[in-house]
Amino acid sequence: MIFNKDTAEKTAELLLQINAIKLNPENPFTWASGWKSPIYCDNRLILSFPIIRNYVRDEFAKNIEKQFGKPDVIAGVATGAIGIGILVAESLGLPFVYVRPEPKKHGRQNQVEGFLQKGQNVVVVEDLISTGNSSLMAVEALRNEGANIKGMAAIFTYGFSVAEENFKKANIDLFTLSNYDNLLNLAVQKQYISEDQQTALQDWSVSPSTWRQE
């Protein structure tokens, strides 16, 4: 679920402007999973544009507090959400921790890095939601440390039904600054893509795992 439509449209436009999101249905990208995709999203680029990263920071901070109440800690999911998560935590005047994909193989073997007390209320910040599996693994790691997860806030989601199901099963509320539907509508309005390309992009979102698999 998006925080609000105005933010969703503005965020989508900014991501397109800096090529953090690229749309190319004619020459699709191949994800690590092997899926063919007409869209590629690299939200790490946001950090290189001060005005845009400040916008994302401020929208996160404002909407996180409005939706979840002010938490005790902000947690970022490594590696993509560490930078923006720190900015959000700084804006809210809160401690920050981040969650590795898996525990370190040496030293203290931490998966959650930073100081976290049992029972603290945590909002998790993520950069991108596809199936939601890696994001929810971070939630599980935080819960194993005794955190009370208030919810997750992400920059962008593809809106896959499998992600909605996964978050529902995990009992985690997910809110995003923007999503796939708002992106496509904005991309047509601003002539980043044609209506024919929009149709191809919509077809992909219905069945991304089988799209153009020959």
UniProtKB/TrEMBL annotation:
Name this protein carries in UniProt: Orotate phosphoribosyltransferase
**Coiled-coil region(s):** none
Q: Which HAMAP family match?
A: PyrE
Q: Which reaction does it catalyse?
A: orotidine 5'-phosphate + diphosphate = orotate + 5-phospho-alpha-D-ribose 1-diphosphate
The cofactor named in the record is: Mg(2+)
Q: Which InterPro entries match?
A: OPRT, Or_phspho_trans_dom, PRTase-like, PRTase_dom
Q: Please provide, alphabetically and separated by semicolons, the GO molecular function terms listed in this UniProt record.
A: orotate phosphoribosyltransferase activity
Q: What is the similarity comment for this entry?
A: Belongs to the purine/pyrimidine phosphoribosyltransferase family. PyrE subfamily.
Q: What is its EC number?
A: 2.4.2.10
Q: Which residues bind orotate?
A: 130
Q: What is the taxonomic lineage of the source species? A: Bacteria, Pseudomonadati, Bacteroidota, Flavobacteriia, Flavobacteriales
Annotated metabolic or biological route of this protein: Pyrimidine metabolism; UMP biosynthesis via de novo pathway; UMP from orotate: step 1/2
Question: Self-association or partners: how does it assemble?
Answer: Homodimer.
The Phosphoribosyltransferase domain extends over 59-156
Q: What does this protein do?
A: Catalyzes the transfer of a ribosyl phosphate group from 5-phosphoribose 1-diphosphate to orotate, leading to the formation of orotidine monophosphate (OMP).
Q: Which organism is it from?
A: Flavobacterium calami
Instruction: For this UniProt record, give its keywords in alphabetical order, as a comma-separated list.
Output: Glycosyltransferase, Magnesium, Pyrimidine biosynthesis, Transferase
In Pfam terms, one family for this protein is Pribosyltran
Q: Which residues bind 5-phospho-alpha-D-ribose 1-diphosphate?
A: 100, 104, 106, 126-134
Kindly indicate whether the keyword Magnesium belongs to this entry. Answer: yes
